[in-house]
C-alpha cells in the first residue's frame, strides 16, 4: 500500500478528531457488582450485618447530629459503578456515581483498616499534582459513615480532565459495610449545598473548566445488568438510543438534592391519597431500593401481600405476575412501576425492592427516594442549567 501524502494524512487525522468531537458525549460504562449479600453470606457475616446495622436510607439527608432510626430491610443488593482516575500519573478507582451526595472521596494510604486495604488506595506521594488541604471531615451515607482528609488533585474521567479538584482521602473506613463494597469510593453529583462548604463539587468544576458539552448528565441502568455492563452515565448530554418515547421534565423543588414533587401514588387502580399534601422524591442513583415514607410502609406491604423477614419483604414468586403496578404522578404524567421491576428475584426468593425512611422533606412532606429499582425503569436526566429532572422509559 502506498504511504499517504502528508496532506492526506493530516486530513485523516482531522477527520478522526472531528468524528470524536462530533460524537460530543462522554459515555462511561458502568459495571454492576456482585451482590453485597452474596459476598457477606460467603464470609459468614450476613446475619450479624442484618441484625446489627440499624440504617435508614434517609439519614444522609439529615443535618449533622440529627438521628433517625428505622430497622434495616434490604441494602444488600449491589450498586452500579465506573472508573475514574486521580493524580499525575493517574491512579485508578472504581466509584459509585451518586446523585444523592456531593463529595468525591476515595480510599487512601492514610487509612489502614481492612476496608481500605482491600480496595485501591490513593497514595498522594506518588502524584506530582497533589496538594494537601489538611482539613478532616466525617461523611455520612445511608449505609455508614467514614472520615476523610481533604486534598486536591487532577481528576480524569475518560477525556474529561478537571484540575485542582478537592476530594476526600479516607482516614478510616469501618469494615461494615465498606469492606464488602465492590467500588472503592463515591463521586457525589448532587448540588453543592450538600457537600463540604467552601469547595467546588466535581460537577461545578467540570462546568467552570468547560469540560461539559452541555450542563447535563444522565443515567442508564440496564434492566438486565451483567458484571461487565451495568449501564452508563453520560456526562454532557443524553443518549437517545438508551430510552424510548418522550422525556417527561419535572422541576427540582429544592436545589440541594435532586428533589422533585410527587403529586399522587397509586397501587394498581387505587390512588392512595398519601401525597394529598404533596410528596417529595429524591432521585438518587446511590440508593438501591425504592424508599417509601415510613408511615405508609405497613399499609403498602399489606396491600401487596408481602411479609417481613430477615431477608427483607418477601412475596411468593408465583404471585408476582398478578401483583399491582405502582404509579407515581409526576408533573401530570403517570410513571408506572410494574411488579416485574419492583420485585427482585434473588435466586428464587422474591423480595419487594423497597425500604422505608422516617426522614421527611423540608416542610414535613412525605419523602420518597427513587433509587435504582425506579431508575432501571426510567432513564434519568439531570439538567443543571434548568434545575429539572427528566425521565424517559429505559430502552
Ligand atoms: C506511597 O508512595 C511512596 C513514594 O513512592 C512510598 O514510599 C510509600 O511506601 C507509598 N505508601 C504506601 C502505603 O504504599
From TrEMBL:
SUPFAM superfamilies: Acid proteases. It comes from the Eukaryota. The active site is at 98, 284. Residues 80-392 form the Peptidase A1 domain. Gene3D superfamilies: 6.10.140.60, Acid Proteases. One of its GO terms (biological process) is proteolysis. The keyword Hydrolase applies. InterPro entries: Aspartic_peptidase_A1 (IPR001461), Aspartic_peptidase_AS (IPR001969), Aspartic_peptidase_N (IPR012848), PEPTIDASE_A1 (IPR033121), Peptidase_aspartic_dom_sf (IPR021109). Residues 1-24 form the signal peptide. Disulfide bonds join 111-116. Keywords: Aspartyl protease, Disulfide bond, Hydrolase, Protease, Signal. GO terms for molecular function: aspartic-type endopeptidase activity. Pfam families: A1_Propeptide (PF07966), Asp (PF00026). PROSITE patterns: ASP_PROTEASE, PEPTIDASE_A1. Belongs to the peptidase A1 family. This is Peptidase A1 domain-containing protein. It comes from Otus sunia (Oriental scops-owl). The lineage of its organism: Eukaryota, Metazoa, Chordata, Craniata, Vertebrata.
Amino acid at each position: 500500500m502506498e504511504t499517504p501524502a502528508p496532506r492526506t494524512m493530516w486530513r485523516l487525522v482531522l477527520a478522526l478528531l472531528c468524528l470524536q468531537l462530533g460524537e460530543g458525549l462522554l459515555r462511561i460504562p458502568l459495571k454492576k457488582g456482585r451482590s453485597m449479600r452474596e459476598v457477606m453470606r460467603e464470609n459468614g457475616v450476613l446475619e450479624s450485618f442484618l441484625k446489627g446495622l440499624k440504617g435508614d436510607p434517609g439519614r444522609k439527608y439529615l443535618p449533622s447530629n440529627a438521628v433517625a432510626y428505622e430497622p434495616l430491610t434490604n441494602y444488600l443488593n449491589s450498586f452500579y459503578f465506573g472508573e475514574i482516575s486521580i493524580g499525575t500519573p493517574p491512579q485508578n478507582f472504581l466509584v459509585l456515581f451518586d446523585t444523592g451526595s456531593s463529595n468525591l472521596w476515595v480510599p487512601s494510604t492514610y487509612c489502614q483498616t481492612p476496608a481500605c486495604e482491600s480496595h485501591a488506595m490513593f497514595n498522594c506521594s506518588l502524584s506530582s499534582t497533589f496538594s494537601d488541604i489538611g482539613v478532616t471531615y466525617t461523611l455520612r451515607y445511608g449505609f455508614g459513615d467514614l472520615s476523610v482528609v481533604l486534598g486536591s488533585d487532577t481528576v480524569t474521567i475518560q477525556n474529561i480532565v478537571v484540575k485542582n479538584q478537592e476530594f476526600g482521602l479516607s482516614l478510616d473506613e469501618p469494615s461494615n459495610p465498606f469492606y464488602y463494597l465492590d467500588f472503592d469510593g463515591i463521586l457525589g453529583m448532587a448540588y453543592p449545598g450538600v457537600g463540604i462548604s467552601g469547595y467546588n463539587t466535581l460537577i461545578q468544576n467540570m462546568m467552570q473548566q468547560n469540560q461539559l458539552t452541555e450542563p447535563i448528565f444522565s443515567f442508564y441502568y440496564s434492566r438486565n445488568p451483567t458484571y461487565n455492563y451495568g449501564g452508563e452515565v453520560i456526562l454532557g448530554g443524553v443518549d437517545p438510543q438508551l430510552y424510548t418515547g418522550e422525556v417527561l421534565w419535572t422541576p427540582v423543588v429544592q436545589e440541594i438534592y435532586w428533589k422533585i414533587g410527587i403529586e399522587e401514588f397509586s397501587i394498581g387502580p387505587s390512588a392512595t391519597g398519601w401525597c394529598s399534601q404533596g410528596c417529595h422524591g429524591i432521585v438518587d442513583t446511590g440508593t438501591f431500593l425504592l424508599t417509601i415514607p415510613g408511615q405508609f410502609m405497613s399499609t403498602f406491604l399489606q396491600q401487596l401481600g408481602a411479609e417481613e423477614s430477615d431477608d427483607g419483604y418477601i412475596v411468593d414468586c408465583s404471585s408476582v405476575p398478578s401483583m399491582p403496578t405502582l404509579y407515581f404522578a409526576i408533573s401530570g404524567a403517570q410513571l408506572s412501576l410494574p411488579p416485574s421491576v419492583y420485585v427482585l428475584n434473588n435466586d428464587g426468593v422474591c423480595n419487594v425492592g423497597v425500604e422505608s425512611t422516617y426522614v421527611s422533606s423540608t416542610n414535613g412532606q412525605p419523602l420518597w427516594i427513587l433509587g435504582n429499582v425506579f431508575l432501571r425503569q426510567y432513564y434519568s436526566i439531570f439538567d443543571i442549567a434548568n434545575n429539572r429532572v427528566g425521565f424517559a422509559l429505559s430502552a
